[in-house]
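Sample intake — Flagellar P-ring protein
Collected from: Massilia consociata
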Amino acid sequence: MRLTFSTILVLCAALAGAAPLAHAERLKDLASIAGVRQNQLSGYGIVVGLDGTGDQTSQTPFTVQSIQAMLQQKGVNLPPGTQLQLKNVAAVMVTSSLPAFAQPGQTIDITVSSIGNAKSLRGGTLLMTPLHGADGQVYAMAQGNVLVGGVGAQAGGAQVQVNHLSVGKISNGATVERAVASNLGADNQIRLELKETDFSTAARVVEAINDQFGPGIATALDGRVIRVRTPSSSDQRVAFIGHLENININRGRDSAKVIMNARTGSVVMNQAVMLEDCAISHGNLTVTVGAETNVSQPAPGSLGGTAVTRNSTVDVKKEPGRVLMVKGGASLAEVVKAMNAIGTTPQDLLAILQALKAAGALRAELEII
């Protein structure tokens, strides 16, 4: 069946003004389009014009070699045996990212970093430097005045250094010379790649796309990649993808996870992680976690109904010879909060969480960073 994408685009425009779904996320925040990405560039260059803060040439011979090679290209031949004493020159690495679909003539920002022993790049000028991609081809040419931020003066005139003086930036310091070939829309289809593998989210993305654009438009290849059919013309394809990215998706719930920072004692949970029945004894730490069931019965003849609520109670003490009792259904968040309230050390928290996981009482993935 042939699809009428012009009708689909009209439908997208009508849906664009609709209110977003509750607790929904845009598709562009959950997935990226295969092939639409940045490409890293780097190059070796020379910064000149420094105020005596350049490389010490006795310890960085590559700086001298670079200057000699540059002078020869400019037609300046130094006498054999000449020993250059350069204080205003520094060898640097120039790095940048080439945006997707960047075209020759556009400019990009670059970062200049010293690779020698220069004290500062402030006030220097980067000479023309080719920036190469992973394939060895030149994709941009960089040049300009290096800006080193983070240097100021106090009221008394004393200089304050708040960052590294050996790294600087040049806004729009590189000009794109070569475009990266793109196969976006090849065979009238694109591939959406979820940022995290999740079969339930992939299924919901396919369902949402097909609900708005018609059956068969989207097909899940696995728990991460989704194939989407697109219009054949480039202008309709761009409009189609633009509307596609703004579809609201109710993503699936993430797997239960607890992240513990062993250095700071921080505990982060991505959802309400519950504990099974268990008992732990750890030093002189005593924590009792329970739940109370409250039943509210309305008066006879009233319009209200019977309400049942469960309130968690946490009691924490430091007493020797006691056992940490945890009842099933208790929230790990409440236990951790209570232990932190009495100044429990990160080592205690780590030991208890590891014991809970080993005993099978913690129904979540425990990650220690």
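Post-analysis note: Confidence is low (pLDDT under 50) at residues 1-22, 306-312.
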